[in-house]
């Protein structure tokens, strides 16, 4: 596949972001943009510096998983953030990144992009992206965070039979190639807006938006906790610290801070954000 490479010049043209993207590095290849960003942060890179790569040789996801993406097909991006936040509020950065990515997808691709707890991005019941935030603390305060975002823009999911049922890409949903530069620029803008709000002490707004975007709530789900144990529950709500509040079959309540869910019912029946252009979802997906 040929692709238009991401360049700092292309991303910066017309970018109305104040802080996020003030320094942009586009690499043809690296181990993991999160690793590069961490090294850059340790070397003093500024708040809002962004590193993107066309391909990663050791891309990683949550819970130690491998994050695969062929060259030029996806957005593989890590942003260094240095907010003045207590360590206990670091989860707000994951919420912020998930919301910004969903908003960018909706804006550029016109696709509904609900979140699946805790921070998967989903289109038509299949995973289209994910967030991996890694942090460094100084005592009780956050020193910096590396906000890693992986988004399947033009991924040909058919090349990976093992994920064809559970993953998708914007191109697959739209039936046409998507401009990665437009998606990346919009993502920087959406991150910047929310980061500015966080800087004004509006963390509560970040939580509320994340809660509103979660397609998981009110649904019967199977939760798998950090020990790998599964339980069918009703996903009732989320707490401000990001914990899932679940109702068990026996009526008791369970709080989950780590783990993930799979849905036993679809999140929605349409993938488009614009009702006049609704079309049915691509079909049942098991996440
Ligand atoms: C997940 O498991 O859902 C999170 C996936 C995060 C992948 C991105 S790609 C850019 C950045 N670099 C990495 O190695 N991981 C994150």
Give your account of this protein's structure.
The chain is α+β, with helices and mostly antiparallel strands. It folds into two domains: 8-213, BirA Bifunctional Protein, domain 2, CATH 3.30.930; 219-262, SH3 type barrels (Roll). It has helices at residues 8-12, 33-42, 91-109, 170-174, 180-199, 203-213; strands at 24-27, 50-53, 75-81, 115-116, 120-123, 126-138, 141-151, 219-224, 230-238, 244-247, 253-256, 260-263. The strands form two sheets. A seven-stranded mixed sheet has the order 1-2-3-7-6-5-4, with helices on both faces. A hairpin with a 5-residue loop joins strand 9 (230-238) and strand 10 (244-247). Helix 3 packs antiparallel against helix 5 (180-199) and helix 3 crosses helix 6. The longest helix is centred in the middle third of the chain and has 20 residues, at 180-199. It starts with 7 loop residues before the first helix and ends in a 24-residue tail after the last strand. The structure holds biotin. Residues 32-34, 56, 59-62, 65, 67, 76-78, 120, 130-132, 148-150 line the site of biotin.
């Amino acid at each position: 596949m040929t692709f238009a490479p991401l360049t700092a010049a292309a991303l910066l043209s017309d970018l109305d972001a104040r802080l996020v993207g003030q320094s942009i590095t586009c690499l043809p290849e690296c181990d993991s943009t999160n690793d590069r960003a961490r090294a850059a942060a340790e070397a003093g890179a500024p708040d809002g510096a962004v590193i993107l790569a066309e391909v990663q040789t050791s891309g990683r996801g949550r819970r130690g998983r491998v994050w695969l993406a062929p060259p030029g097909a996806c957005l593989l991006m890590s942003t260094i953030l240095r907010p003045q936040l207590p360590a206990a509020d670091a989860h707000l950065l994951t919420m912020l990144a998930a919301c910004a990515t969903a908003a960018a997808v909706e804006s550029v691709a016109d696709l509904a992009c609900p979140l699946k707890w805790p921070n998967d991005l989903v289109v038509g019941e299949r995973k289209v992206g994910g967030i991996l935030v890694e942090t460094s603390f100084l005592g009780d305060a956050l020193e910096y965070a590396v906000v890693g975002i992986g988004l399947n823009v033009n991924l040909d999911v058919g090349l990976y039979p093992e994920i064809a049922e559970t993953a998708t890409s914007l191109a697959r949903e739209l039936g046409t190639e998507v401009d990665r530069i437009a998606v990346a620029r919009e993502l920087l803008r959406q991150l910047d807006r929310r980061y500015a709000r966080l800087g004004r002490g509006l963390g509560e707004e970040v939580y509320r938006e994340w809660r509103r975007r979660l397609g998981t709530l009110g649904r019967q789900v199977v939760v798998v906790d950090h020990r790998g144990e599964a339980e069918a529950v009703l996903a009732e709500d989320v707490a401000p610290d990001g914990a899932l509040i679940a109702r068990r079959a026996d009526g008791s309540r369970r709080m989950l801070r780590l783990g993930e869910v799979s849905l036993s019912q679809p999140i929605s029946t349409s993938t488009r954000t614009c009702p006049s252009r609704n079309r049915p979802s691509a079909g049942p997906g098991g996440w």
